[in-house]
Amino acid sequence: MSAESKFVELVRAWLCSLPHDLKVAYEAMDDENLPRSARELAVGAIIYVVSPNDFIVDRNDAVVSYADDALLLRMALSEIVAALGKDGAEETSLLRARFAEQFEGVAEDLALCNEVMGELYPWLASKVAGLRALEYKGKKIAAYLDDDDARELLFEDGLVFGTDYPVDEDTIADKLKKASTITDVMRRRRAEEQRLTA
């Protein structure tokens, strides 16, 4: 199987499991044994996924519109896994054990994405650090960690997202057959971004 075929299969799987994978980020957000920066990244990833205002949107194709969510969430989870090895967090966090399926092989999966996406991969990966700076419904990341009402609101929005999520194996079957379906949209978005900052 070619690298492109593996990439398409991988992204299809991530798109189908996005609502479930989002639960991992919620668990990381609430895991007080994780470093604060890892928990902030988890909140940022949640906000990015549940917010309707993604920076990559294809109004004609819900599958493509969620591809960046699936990729950025995995990139964020990869950073959170890296944080598990610091300051004894691994010994006290049950996150990796509880969600072994999501974490197993994530480095290899992202390496495959890097190979197939080429110059788009570092561009998308550069967005991960910015997840900690996102605001949602007028609140900064810290509010969702420190305020029970804000946390509850974010949890409820995650449930709504999971209920309304329009992608499953049936809807994706005919819509994602080649990598360019995703990369073309990302390439256009990157070009727009470069024009705006030039």
Q: What would your notes on this structure say?
A:
There is one protein chain. This protein is mainly alpha-helical. The chain is 71% helix and 2% strand. It is built from 13 helices and two strands; from the N terminus they run H-H-H-H-H-H-H-H-H-E-E-H-H-H-H. The protein has a two-stranded antiparallel ribbon. A hairpin with a 2-residue loop joins strand 1 and strand 2. The radius of gyration is 16 Å and the shape is globular. It starts with a helix and ends with a helix. The mean pLDDT is 84.
The string of secondary-structure elements, in order, is HHHHHHHHHEEHHHH
Classification by helices and strands:
mainly alpha
What overall form do the CA principal axes indicate?
globular
Strands side by side in the biggest sheet: 1-2
Residues in helix, %: over 70%
The mean pLDDT is: 84
Query: What ranges have pLDDT less than 50 throughout 5 or more consecutive residues?
Result: none
Biggest sheet descriptor: 2 strands, antiparallel
Question: What's the helix and strand layout?
Answer:
Blueprint: H1 3-16, H2 18-30, H3 36-50, H4 62-84, H5 89-92, H6 95-98, H7 100-103, H8 106-117, H9 120-125, E1 135-136, E2 139-140, H10 141-146, H11 148-164, H12 169-172, H13 180-197
Antiparallel strand pairs: 1-2
Helix pairs in contact: 1-8, 2-3, 2-4, 2-11, 3-4, 3-11
Provide a quick synopsis of the model.
This protein has helices at 3-16, 18-30, 36-50, 62-84, 89-92, 95-98, 100-103, 106-117, 120-125, 141-146, 148-164, 169-172, 180-197, and strands at 135-136, 139-140. It has 198 residues and is mainly α.
